[in-house]
Amino acid sequence: MTVILVGHGSLPQGMLAAAELILGPQEQVHALGLEPGDSPEVLAGRLESLVAGAERGVLVLADLFGGSPANAAARVLMGGSRGVQVVAGLNLPMLLEVLMARLQGVADAAELARRAAEAGRDGVRDMRPIFGG
């Protein structure tokens, strides 16, 4: 199972670095950022190459629904790539859930996408009601 992080600037690389700080080095995880001067088409081409080279299912986690990186991922989906799932709204709880589930043997991209979306939602918390103050 390949996981690809796509987003604006160095956010995907930063998210991967944060996850690896917590979980250790990860295999088959790629981080693609849309850098200044890059066109969305360049990013889409890099993403399509990674998807085409993946041996099994692919989960793409994009930073912002409707943003150019997520649109590039949507283009891969619309291109008919089988076994590809895309979830937008990348955050650290989402990424950690996906990587931990993968380490536990979950290899179904659709199941990882479901877990990613749930962990992404559950990871957003207003802490004042919990800790008072």
Provide structural commentary:
The protein is α/β, with parallel strands linked by helices and 133 residues long. It contains six helices and four strands. The chain has helices spanning 11-23, 40-53, 68-78, 92-103, 109-122, 128-131, and strands spanning 2-8, 29-34, 58-62, 84-88. Strands 2-1-3-4 form a four-stranded parallel sheet, with helices on both faces. Helix 1 (11-23) crosses helix 4 (92-103), helix 2 (40-53) crosses helix 3 (68-78) and helix 4 runs antiparallel to helix 5 (109-122). The protein is globular, with a radius of gyration of 15 Å.
In terms of topology, how is this protein built?
Blueprint: E1 2-8, H1 11-23, E2 29-34, H2 40-53, E3 58-62, H3 68-78, E4 84-88, H4 92-103, H5 109-122, H6 128-131
Helix pairs in contact: 1-4, 2-3, 4-5
Give a summary of the structure in a few sentences.
With 133 residues, the chain is α/β, with parallel strands linked by helices. It is built from six helices and four strands.
Shape: globular
Assign the structural class, choosing from mainly alpha, mainly beta, alpha/beta, alpha+beta, or little secondary structure: alpha/beta
Spatially, the strands of the biggest sheet line up as 2-1-3-4
Rg is: 15 Å
Q: What share of the residues does DSSP label as strand, in percent?
A: 15-25%
Largest sheet: 4 strands, parallel
- pLDDT averaged over residues: 95
Number of strands: 4
H/E order of the elements?
A: EHEHEHEHHH
Query: Count the helices. How many?
Result: 6
